[in-house]
Amino acid sequence: MLAAIGVDSLDAxxxxxxxxxxxxxxxxxxxxxxxxxxxxxxxLSHANAHETLCFLGAGFYDHMIPAAVDxxxxxxxxxxxxxxxxxxxxxxxxxxIFEFQTxxxxxxxxxxxxxxxxxxxxxxxxxxxxxxxxxxRDSVLVSGGVNPLxxxxxxxxxxxxxxxxVEVPATPDRVTDxxxxxxxxxxxxxxxxxxxxxxxxxIDVLDDLAACVHQAGALLVASVYPVxxxxxxxxxxxxxxxxxxxxxSLGLPLAFGGPYLGFFAVRQALVRKMPGRIVGESVDRxxxxxxxxxxxxxxxxxxxxxxTSNICxxxxxxxxxxxxxxSLLGRQGLRQQAEHCVRKAAYAQRRLSRLPGVRVxxxxxxxxxxxxELPGDxxxxxxxxxxxxxxAGYPLQRDYPDLxxxxxxAVTEKRTRDEIDTLxxxxxxxx
Length: 431
Prior knowledge:
By secondary structure, the protein is of the alpha/beta class. Helices cover about 35% and strands about 15% of the residues. The strands form 4 sheets. Strands 2-8-7-6-5-3-4 form a 7-stranded mixed beta sheet, sandwiched between helices. The protein has a 4-stranded antiparallel beta sheet with strand order 11-12-15-14. A two-stranded parallel sheet has the order 1-13. Strand 5, helix 10 (about 205-215) and strand 6 (about 220-225) form a beta-alpha-beta unit. Helix 6 packs parallel to helix 11 (about 315-355). The radius of gyration is 24 Å and the shape is globular.
């Protein structure tokens, strides 16, 4: 190999790397047998807090995943499949993606969905960029109730694009301020960005906001929690133009932060402005139903200046898991899951707010998450509860300095009454 590239030694190959940065040798341990490797990894796994009682949320949730999801998604024809560039040999993969798109459209009440995004944050960023392309405007209003991580991603991605981001206040006591939005709307605003339920867990009804935004010639972009759509009015039915979200709660484990799944849906008029790919249904020359990549918006497929996407990997395996998960639950199963979340969160609110010096900050209805104000520093209290085996919630002062005494607590269908009572008892003892 050295001779083929015209280098006479290994040292000469790495000559451009400063000597101080080179390793004199690779200090690797001796190899282990398969059984020894298994034992070693099994021992290391016990360092994980795998028995911690989880009330964490903030965008990622501990939901039940049916065993069939793992079993089916692990089949070789799915697990090893790559991007379906050749439809004639990828009909199964294309059909699975087509079903995913269909389910996302039904969940959101919108006309078209793409073949998935990287995660909820990048999907929201792409939603904003789609609105900018569609309107030709350069200003975006973003609710303070949007996940802080998503807002940071939006700021980073658009930093050099000449866009103006304006934050609109939102607090646990009040959903996105309509008056502030109306005052900030002008002929430069491409989109108003909200989240429902918002980061504090509060549910909003967006019909009036959508009408106000549309009157100003802008688009309404909403990040939504898919499980909540088993009960709540769909974004498309409230006038939302672009709905995005994190699909982790649809059959994906928390898995230390990924891989996750972004979903993206739009009204028909915006299809040509959206990123990613769309799988469509067609017929072959014999008249049999088949599936094809109907729209691909990358620069490899269309003129570079018209490209609307740099998505190379479409998270197809994660989308497959979501498709299987939704197929297993069905309409009624998703509704029941959502009802469990609402009822258990309501019980947790009642139980925890009885503790001395503790109150729930949310003024209106919530789905499965709410803000609990404590009589002391929330970060310190959460750390002490974690030492007792309870991931009690997300300390909000990390993103909202004025909420130093507040925890964001999430309750899913997996949390039992006894577990909620355990949290209340440990918190009371600590306070």
